[in-house]
Amino acid sequence: MNTINQILTELQVEKEVGKIEIFGNGLVNNTWLVTLNNRKIIVQRINTNVFKHPENIDHNINVLANYFKKNYPEYIFTKPLSNKYGISLFNFKNEFYRAYEYINNSYYYNILEKEDLAYEAAKQFGKFTKQCEGLNIKELKTTIKNFHNLSLRYKLFENAISKADSEKKNIANDIIRELKEKSYIKDKYNLIIKFNKTRLRVTHHDTKINNVLFDKHDKGICIIDLDTIMPGYFISDVGDMMRTYLSPADENEIDLENIYIRNNYFFALTEGYLEEMNTVLKEEELNEFIYSGQFMIYMQAIRFLTDYLENDIYYGAKFPLENYYRAKNQLTLLERYEEKIADFKTYIKKLLVKKYI
């Protein structure tokens, strides 16, 4: 590809390209693995339909890279490569690219089948946020406005209902009713924000298992996919892990019988995250640890159904009812999760007493 060759020229690296192949399973950006004579480079095109201001991403990553270099030089932070002028974001025909050094002997997983990986991943995300405690949050810019604003998502959901055609509303009527019945989750979010029960921190916002690199012994190396790092709340990171780690079925599963909660994965991710963050989170925040799962699962159910009602303009759909079924999937996951809350509260109470008090 000519663009990739131009990037290699900008970076003054060898031009002897052995192979260019599509890399990873990301749904937002396009990513390629470029194999050179004696090194590998990751090249990525930023999706400006999602990230309206890619320069904000570049700004945040450079702020964080400088912070880690100064305060935690041993921490592996995946900073884009720069040219001789220090530029790391390249604009070719109004498309934005960046390149990373490939981390040798690293691996990622798309499917979570071992609880040890849940522990390691949660520990990596907790470690990242903990080590960023010394960074002035005001130095970071917002990369997606209102990304995890549940109050706004609920308003958009209501707006979609009012404007949807009658056929779609009839099909989705049961899910709409159930999501409205669970609006107490939205109400609790509003109270948490209003009364400052949690505070803004450096937050990843996309803590799926494939955003952590592991070594050959399945120990966490570092977190990746840093585009959504910005000021946020810990419930986003913990909640997204609960949403994506606890059930063996992902959000595309149509057979609802395959959706259930694996308690041991909850225990593993909780222990991994709190091993790093127990001294950082306030008591009020620890009280909302379990709520974070409700928060993220509920919000994703709303977002899927909103998209279905709006003719799949955001997520797209491979078949007409895909986002309807995704919403049903997440609503089922939420119901299964809420059935476990009493057990989870007992576990966390024992964990805090045993390990951290």
From TrEMBL:
The reply to whether Transferase figures as a keyword in the UniProt entry is yes
Q: Which InterPro entries match?
A: Aminoglycoside_PTrfase, Kinase-like_dom_sf, Pseudomonas-type_ThrB
What are the entry keywords? Transferase
Q: Where is the Aminoglycoside phosphotransferase domain?
A: 20-252
Q: Name one Pfam family in it.
A: APH
User: SUPFAM superfamilies under this entry?
Assistant: Protein kinase-like (PK-like)
Report the GO molecular function annotations: transferase activity
Would I find Ribosomal protein among this entry's keywords? no
Q: Which PANTHER family match?
A: AMINOGLYCOSIDE PHOSPHOTRANSFERASE DOMAIN-CONTAINING PROTEIN-RELATED, SLR1880 PROTEIN
Name by which UniProt lists this protein? Phosphotransferase family enzyme
